[in-house]
C-alpha cells in the first residue's frame, strides 16, 4: 500500500509557562481563577478580544497580587483614572511581579502609566482638589520602601 501525503495541518497548542513564585501575595488565588484573564474573562493562553494571535504580540503579565492578565487588558484598565491603579480582582495596588521573565518587556509601559497617574494627581492637588490624594490610594511610605528594596 502506498500512502500519498497531500496536506499537512499543523496543530499547535500555545500555553504560557507561568512560574511559581514565592513573591506572590496569594498564590492560592491564582490557582482558583484558573487560566483566565480577570478583565476579558478569556483564557490568557488565548489572545485578548482585540487581538487575533496569542503569544508575544498579545502577551500576559503576572501581578504581584497573584492575578494574571493580558497586558492589553490590564494596561488599559490601570490607565483609566477610575481604576486608581488597583487590581480589578482584589483591589490591591496592581504591581508587576518582579524578577519574572514574562513581565520584563512590559516594565517600562507600567512605569509610564504610573508616572502619568502621579502627574494627574499633582494637577488635581494644584487645582485644589485635595480629595484626589485620598482617592488615589497612594501606598503608605513603608510599602513604597519595601517595594523598591
Ligand atoms: Zn484579557
Ligand atoms: Zn491583545
Ligand atoms: Zn489581584
Automatic annotation (TrEMBL):
<feature type="domain" description="RING-type">
    <location>
        <begin position="48"/>
        <end position="91"/>
    </location>
</feature>
<dbReference type="GO" id="GO:0005680">
    <property type="term" value="C:anaphase-promoting complex"/>
</dbReference>
<keyword id="KW-0498">Mitosis</keyword>
<keyword id="KW-0863">Zinc-finger</keyword>
<dbReference type="InterPro" id="IPR013083">
    <property type="entry name" value="Znf_RING/FYVE/PHD"/>
</dbReference>
<dbReference type="GO" id="GO:0008270">
    <property type="term" value="F:zinc ion binding"/>
</dbReference>
<dbReference type="GO" id="GO:0016567">
    <property type="term" value="P:protein ubiquitination"/>
</dbReference>
<protein>
    <recommendedName>
        <fullName>Anaphase-promoting complex subunit 11</fullName>
    </recommendedName>
</protein>
<dbReference type="GO" id="GO:0031145">
    <property type="term" value="P:anaphase-promoting complex-dependent catabolic process"/>
</dbReference>
<dbReference type="InterPro" id="IPR024991">
    <property type="entry name" value="RING-H2_APC11"/>
</dbReference>
<dbReference type="GO" id="GO:0061630">
    <property type="term" value="F:ubiquitin protein ligase activity"/>
</dbReference>
<dbReference type="Pfam" id="PF12861">
    <property type="entry name" value="zf-ANAPC11"/>
</dbReference>
<keyword id="KW-0862">Zinc</keyword>
<keyword id="KW-0131">Cell cycle</keyword>
<keyword id="KW-0479">Metal-binding</keyword>
<dbReference type="InterPro" id="IPR051031">
    <property type="entry name" value="RING-box_E3_Ubiquitin_Ligase"/>
</dbReference>
<keyword id="KW-0132">Cell division</keyword>
<dbReference type="GO" id="GO:0051301">
    <property type="term" value="P:cell division"/>
</dbReference>
<keyword id="KW-0833">Ubl conjugation pathway</keyword>
<dbReference type="InterPro" id="IPR001841">
    <property type="entry name" value="Znf_RING"/>
</dbReference>
<dbReference type="GO" id="GO:0097602">
    <property type="term" value="F:cullin family protein binding"/>
</dbReference>
Amino acid at each position: 500500500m502506498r500512502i500519498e501525503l497531500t496536506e499537512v495541518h499543523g496543530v499547535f497548542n500555545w500555553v504560557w509557562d507561568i512560574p511559581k513564585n514565592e513573591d506572590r501575595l496569594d498564590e492560592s488565588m491564582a490557582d482558583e481563577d484558573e487560566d483566565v484573564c480577570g478583565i476579558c474573562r478569556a483564557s490568557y493562553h488565548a489572545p485578548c478580544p482585540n487581538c487575533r494571535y496569542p503569544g508575544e504580540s498579545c502577551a500576559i503579565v503576572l501581578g504581584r497580587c497573584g492575578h494574571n492578565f493580558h497586558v492589553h487588558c490590564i494596561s488599559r484598565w490601570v490607565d483609566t483614572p477610575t481604576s486608581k491603579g488597583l487590581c480589578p480582582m482584589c483591589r490591591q495596588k496592581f504591581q508587576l511581579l518582579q524578577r519574572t521573565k514574562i513581565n520584563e518587556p512590559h516594565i517600562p509601559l507600567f512605569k509610564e502609566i504610573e508616572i502619568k497617574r502621579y502627574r494627574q494627581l499633582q494637577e488635581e492637588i494644584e487645582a485644589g482638589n485635595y480629595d484626589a490624594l485620598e482617592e488615589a490610594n497612594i501606598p503608605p511610605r513603608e510599602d513604597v520602601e519595601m517595594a523598591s528594596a
